[in-house]
């Protein structure tokens, strides 16, 4: 069973997830405070993967790169969100970000190995362009970013948002993964696909 730890940081109480893979530690997303959390725990981070590029998920990317010199992987669309310090200011958001460049790009694929763990990568835009979900079929575990929450879904009113893309992506790509799949969301507590399929007030 894949072991994970959760850290919640920043103004928007954003979750990130530390996976103890066979070949080293992987962190999914980088909210404010994530770097200090790893350093306090004496974790030797080997890889940083981003579900999407919204400011609350990437605020510590540059700090993590500097502290651990770990590769950064994300969707190609996410690259300017973490490398251009003015990206969010263009949309009226007054947040500062220290720029960082991704080391490699990730796209939707049936299987990709990250440090000894096979993930299916699903692209589910609608909340944010280039939004990725990472699914371990063996462990019935989905690291979902801001796509599907316990009793909710990601916002679609931010720049690049699209409600139809979001809802269709959840129905067509996430719900078929299986009712027993645990969803680790970008905000709030974990949930199950089956629970959301039956009770989610937005997409049920």
Explain what the structure shows.
The chain is globular, with a radius of gyration of 16 Å. It is 21% helix and 30% strand. The protein is built from 6 helices and 14 strands. Strands 1-2-3-4-5-6 form a 6-stranded mixed sheet. The chain has a 6-stranded mixed sheet with strand order 7-8-9-10-13-14. The protein has 204 residues and is of the alpha/beta class. The chain has one domain (4-199): Ribonuclease Z/Hydroxyacylglutathione hydrolase-like (Metallo-beta-lactamase, Chain A), CATH 3.60.15. The mean pLDDT is 95.
Number of distinct beta strands: 14
CATH architectural type: 4-Layer Sandwich
* Spatial shape: globular
N-end to C-end Cα span: 29 Å
Mean pLDDT: 95
Strand order of the largest sheet: 1-2-3-4-5-6
CATH superfamily: Ribonuclease Z/Hydroxyacylglutathione hydrolase-like
Largest beta-sheet details: 6 strands, mixed
Strands, helices and their partners?
Blueprint: E1 4-9, E2 14-21, E3 24-28, H1 34-40, E4 45-49, H2 55-58, H3 61-68, E5 72-74, H4 79-83, E6 104-105, E7 109-114, E8 117-123, E9 132-136, E10 141-145, E11 148-149, E12 152-153, H5 163-174, E13 182-185, E14 191-192, H6 193-199
Parallel strand pairs: 3-4, 4-5, 5-6, 10-13
Antiparallel strand pairs: 1-2, 2-3, 7-8, 8-9, 9-10, 11-12, 13-14
